Amino acid sequence: MLSMLAPAGTRSLDGLSAVVTGGSRGLGLLIAEQLVARGCAVTIAARDGDELDRAREYLTRDRAGAAVRTARCDVADRGQMTALMQDAALAQGGLDVVVANAGIIQVAPLDALGPRDFASASDTIFMGAVHTALEALPRLRRSPAGGRLALIGSVGGLVAAPHLLPYSCAKFAVAGLADGLHAELAGSSVSVTAVHPGLMRTGSHVAAEFGGRQQQEFGWFSAAAGSPLLSMDARRAASRIVTAVERRRTRLVLTPAAKAADLGRGVAPVLTTRLTALMARALPSAPFDDRVPTMAPGREVEAAAEADLPPVLRRLRSWGSALNDRASARLNQRGGARRGPQRGLA
What we know:
The protein is an alpha/beta fold and 346 residues long. It has helices at residues 2-5, 26-37, 49-60, 78-92, 115-140, 165-184, 214-226, 234-246, 256-267, 269-282, 298-308, 311-330; strands at 17-21, 41-46, 68-72, 97-100, 106-107, 148-152, 191-197, 200-201, 209-210, 232-233, 251-254, 296-297. The chain has one domain (14-330): Rossmann fold (3-Layer(aba) Sandwich), CATH 3.40.50. It contains twelve helices and twelve strands. 51% of the residues are buried.
């Protein structure tokens, strides 16, 4: 455990100041943990104050002298992001590392989605990254250590993922933003790292939003996200992300499946698109009736999903998501009252 939290010979972050958006749970919480373990003073930002309190307790438990601040902030609000960066820089003596991680996940077929779902994903994932970058850069440029900016994308931003269309569109935009910022800042003191993880066991299935046949959508997503064959241990992913930021790597793609999808898109784009179309046909279709499409968080769908699935599929889902279920409790995914789409997922 200790070696995973603080790899030998990678202490160049010691004493630096960091901000992590979406840092109250899931991958963001583990990235903050890595930064704290490597000697950073860290501000974690999210919308939910109770989640932030629990996250701070998690990060400071058994870590004497750990410098962790919390800030309630909606990344979709430019004014709140301005205040976040100003306050963090003032409290921590400047800014050296900023990780734009905030996001939401909406799982539903196209026929169960509306314009609001796309706007919500874009506001949080893409515009949240834009606000983070624009507000952080003037301060990162003043860092004596040379600023480091990381944008957390996704394999869904490299290859469009079926039943995750708003998420994928927003993550594609984040990928473009990261590439463009890297080009614009070439030769400056600020490095930009684009991170594209595949599936990780962060427990995000209980906070993700599900539409269409909600129980069935929850079933396949939770099983895939927790399967040891498809997903990656989230703490290991966070360690690799922070090491990439520390070493100023331009791009990091995590998990073999994500690397294969990225390669396939570059080498055989038509075949890759056809394969994703086949995947989409295997997923649940939307119910065709007059009901207004609604989304519900996984923590509300979970019990109904267990009861709704046939016994064989229930056992498969239970096997596939067992590790992810444990991660959801450990990584602060299950607490807090629902107040609209949950920002701060991996």
